Amino acid sequence: MFRTSARQNPLRSSALHLVLIVYTLICVAPILLIIMNSFKSRRGIFGAPLEFPRGETFSLEGYETVFTIGNFPLYFQNSLIVTIVSLLLTVVFGAMAAFALSEYRYRGREILTLYMILGLMVPIRLGTVGILNMMAAAGISNTLTALILVYTAQHLPLAIFVMSELMRQVSDDLKNAARIDGLSEYRILFRLVMPVMRPAIATIAVFTMIPIWNDLWFPLVLAPSEETRTVTLGAQFFIGQFVTNWSAVLAALSLAIIPMLVLYMLFSRQIIRGITSGAVK
Amino acid sequence: MATTDHTAPVATGKRPRRWHIPLLLAPAAIVYTLVMIWPLVDSLRLSFFDEGAPGERIFVGLQNYRALFGSDLWWGQFWNALVNNFEFFAIHMLVQNPIGIALAAILSLPALRGKTVYRTIFFIPAVLSYVIVGFVWRLILSPTWGIAPDLLDRIGLGFLYQPWLGQTDTALITLSLISVWQFIGIPMMLIYAALLSIPDELIEAAECDGITGVAQFFKIKLPLLWPSIGIISILTFVGNFNAFDLVYVTQGPFAAPDGSTDLLGTFLFRTFFGSTSQLGDPYMGATIATAMFGIIVIGVLLYLFGIQRRLTYYQM
């Protein structure tokens, strides 16, 4: 691992750090600025926007407005349900299909595989008009179910693609030994193969949960009612309504940022590993 | 059901029906077909229809396409959105991807300290939603709050400040740069992973030959990165031609000021969903979606046959 002197040149290394620190500032300063000002009174926000909240400028009035008027606990719950159920369905259905497509040989398998991963290249948004019609016909517009179905369908191709790649690497001897012991194919999938899929599931979770949580398009189009609003859509509506109430806007933004930041910090290692292992090659 | 023939070579006799295969496939195939593929096909189909009497659907052939490409009302908007979308894409290719690659190149240097911290921080904006990012920047650039002019004043550049998001000639560039700010972490991560997969021996050999630093990047590493850069470009392309959220959040459904930030995605939304001044038109929406689909397919095919085949892949 130790490399020769070329890189240890202190001048060069500090120049590189300077570049990286400047970019770090560009990255985090806007976010910090918003969070910092959300804890200030209106006078503080406009009078001294670049200072930390102090005695006379500290205030929670923005948060009070958000909690008394906004329905954020409900939105938060909706987002959680949609994201987690969609992820579960994507992983379970995706694993079953990936197993059927990678484990057995039969006629039409290649075509079927191609069909199932075709969706990787086609944005599902372009089918919005058709989706709206179908959800209306099925009587489930303005429900969380509609959102869950859309997000599951959208992410299945990725799940199938990633998992069938990995399933080919699971040892045949192990599966055949299980078959001789009389385990059903379903048990082989869920007991033997799924535990090996953990890195693939991490990748799928990253590429599924972040976009679903952050999506504005489908909540806006499919489930805009108050009861089914997700955090992203709720924040959009709330901020749109309170544009002139700066402390409320800043508080709502911070409330949307902080959970994501905390989750990201907790799982950043896994998230980064998920991105780098799944997408390259 | 538990016994499958597939442990034994296929040679002998009749296979038992392997019902588990369709059963395993069914849930994914049904959801995917019903909720993704069928609506896409349905949207394509609807683009050949229009509403006759209220509630009645009539076949109109290519009329919607003629309207989209031939009438002043639609063509003007479509062309504007298309040109803006290409500009949006060009800025991502010219700013986001090179900076992402440069950051990845720095972070992959083995002697660098703190690379995990930097890497984690640079990816933060990418996990936030467009709604957050859009509003954060709208507030920061807003003349009402005055953060941007104040900061510029402090370094003596106050005269440079303009309400960038509010002027027709700067709004689109500003929005593109906001989007670049948000997503720079993605090319950075992908290139970083590609750089880590370059074998150490190759780098050591280059160092023995005296090729180090910037020269080493351009002569040794960059040629190995082209396939990954290709993937990033196509991801950027599909993402950009499908973009909607950021414009909708910061500039509203009419892509203010004066439609100057309109992208195909916002145009599609306004058309099928309607807005305060016009009723939603699902048939024209379907037509626009089909046109977007065509643009994305052409782009992907151009990449696959025009560019990807010319890339050199090195065995590592």
- Strand tally of chain A: 0
| Helical percentage of chain B | 55-70%
Terminal CA distance of chain A reads 24 Å
CATH topology of chain A: MetI-like fold
CATH architecture title of chain A: Orthogonal Bundle
What is the number of beta strands of chain B? 2
Q: Can you give a write-up of this model?
A:
The complex is a heterodimer of chains A (281) and B (316). Chain A has 281 residues and is mainly α. Chain A contains 13 helices and no strands. Chain A has helices at residues 10-38, 42-47, 61-69, 72-103, 109-117, 128-137, 144-167, 172-180, 185-193, 198-214, 217-222, 231-241, 246-279. Chain A has a single domain (72-209, 216-279), classed as MetI-like fold. In chain B, 66% of the residues lie in helices and 2% in strands. Chain B has helices spanning 20-46, 63-70, 72-107, 115-127, 130-141, 147-154, 171-183, 185-196, 200-208, 213-240, 245-251, 264-273, 282-307; strands at residues 49-51, 57-59. Chain B is built from 13 helices and 2 strands. In chain B, a hairpin with a 5-residue loop joins β1 and β2 (57-59). Chain B has 2 domains: 24-61, no CATH class; 73-310, MetI-like (MetI-like fold). Chain B has 316 residues and is mainly α. The longest helix of chain B has 36 residues, at 72-107. The interface between A and B is large, with 102 and 95 residues.
Detail the topology: elements first, then pairings.
The complex is a heterodimer of chains A (281) and B (316).
Chain A: H1 10-38, H2 42-47, H3 61-69, H4 72-103, H5 109-117, H6 128-137, H7 144-167, H8 172-180, H9 185-193, H10 198-214, H11 217-222, H12 231-241, H13 246-279
Helix pairs in contact in A: 1-13, 3-13, 4-7, 4-10, 4-12, 7-10, 8-9, 10-13, 12-13
Chain B: H1 20-46, E1 49-51, E2 57-59, H2 63-70, H3 72-107, H4 115-127, H5 130-141, H6 147-154, H7 171-183, H8 185-196, H9 200-208, H10 213-240, H11 245-251, H12 264-273, H13 282-307
Antiparallel strand pairs in B: 1-2
